[in-house]
Amino acid sequence: MKPTENGITMTPAILVTGGAGYVGSHTVTTLLERQSGQEFEIVVVDNLSNAYRSEGQKKPESLRIIEEITNKTIHFYELDIRDADALSKVFETHNVECVIHFAALKAVGESVEKPLEYYQANIGGTCTLMETMRKYGVFKLIYSSSCTVYGEPERLPLDEGHPTGRGLTSPYGKSKYFCEEIMKDLSISDKKWKIISLRYFNPVGAHRSGRIGEDPAGIPNNLMPFIAQVAVGRLSELKVFGNDYPTPDGTGVRDYIHVEDLAEGHVKAMKLFQQPGFSGFHAINLGTGTGYSVLEMVAAFKAASGKDIPYRIIGRRAGDIATNYSDVALSHKLLGWRAVKTLEDMCADTWRWQSKNPNGFKTS
């Protein structure tokens, strides 16, 4: 542990980049809920590109609400992880022992339109973060990766042995793949690194309290918040991108996972760092192993909310593929983790969040 100026050892800290965003905020909540006391500090850095902060407040709404839910304190710094000097000050202030790295741009379609911005943020930011970690002797990293690294599936379900980097359909997916390759090279060059890359499938749902959930800036890029905003009346209809895919109803099929299950996966992953001899780069899928089509999701959400979900079929969206769903045997084996929330849970919790907060974290 690093001593403070008066010689007292500092509490170990977990640094969460992008911790005010959707998956980050739910993981922060789970980390704090699992603590019996103040075993470690939670330090969040976020540039607020996809998080809302009320006027006059120092912390974004998601983190303020988490503090109320858990009755614990979160240390927050507004910064972009590409700012090495600002990031270094965080490492100098806190006894960081582990980093959970969410900070990234994440919309597949948008990345096709803005590739340079995605490469700058996702790859440049990750490199600056790891350089800073190395500078301060921090070598434990959990990375928020994506099933998009698998590209067009050569076989289903997608297991971790499936080739990555082939047939990638978007700069977003490429950025995640490139970051994983950098991490592999880094862990080969220096055996001190312990890197776990969690390849998410499609996070949905909200915290069971209904107080935090997905609140995208602008028009949603992901299916579930789009459906929820139609159900609550913020949007008039859902746009379904293509109904001519080789799937049972022609719409895209995805493996949707409840965000609380996903958050629990990060807590389980941290325990791997404690295993004797654990080192190097390890990729692990986090999904349910079951795929649902867009129209199946619409029907499930309609049942959960009691609201009609008008939709209109339009052309395919650049970067999308027909079907993907996970093989999660490795996460069961290595983490002792499995998704427990059902599709009904995902829809009910999303609706609880959206109906209680029709404008998201904004009060008006």
From TrEMBL:
<keyword id="KW-0413">Isomerase</keyword>
<dbReference type="InterPro" id="IPR001509">
    <property type="entry name" value="Epimerase_deHydtase"/>
</dbReference>
<dbReference type="InterPro" id="IPR005886">
    <property type="entry name" value="UDP_G4E"/>
</dbReference>
<comment type="pathway">
    <text>Carbohydrate metabolism; galactose metabolism.</text>
</comment>
<comment type="similarity">
    <text>Belongs to the NAD(P)-dependent epimerase/dehydratase family.</text>
</comment>
<dbReference type="GO" id="GO:0003974">
    <property type="term" value="F:UDP-N-acetylglucosamine 4-epimerase activity"/>
</dbReference>
<protein>
    <recommendedName>
        <fullName>UDP-glucose 4-epimerase</fullName>
        <ecNumber>5.1.3.2</ecNumber>
    </recommendedName>
</protein>
<dbReference type="GO" id="GO:0003978">
    <property type="term" value="F:UDP-glucose 4-epimerase activity"/>
</dbReference>
<dbReference type="InterPro" id="IPR036291">
    <property type="entry name" value="NAD(P)-bd_dom_sf"/>
</dbReference>
<dbReference type="Pfam" id="PF01370">
    <property type="entry name" value="Epimerase"/>
</dbReference>
<dbReference type="GO" id="GO:0033499">
    <property type="term" value="P:galactose catabolic process via UDP-galactose, Leloir pathway"/>
</dbReference>
<comment type="subunit">
    <text>Homodimer.</text>
</comment>
<dbReference type="GO" id="GO:0005829">
    <property type="term" value="C:cytosol"/>
</dbReference>
<keyword id="KW-0520">NAD</keyword>
<feature type="domain" description="NAD-dependent epimerase/dehydratase">
    <location>
        <begin position="14"/>
        <end position="273"/>
    </location>
</feature>
<keyword id="KW-0299">Galactose metabolism</keyword>
<keyword id="KW-0119">Carbohydrate metabolism</keyword>
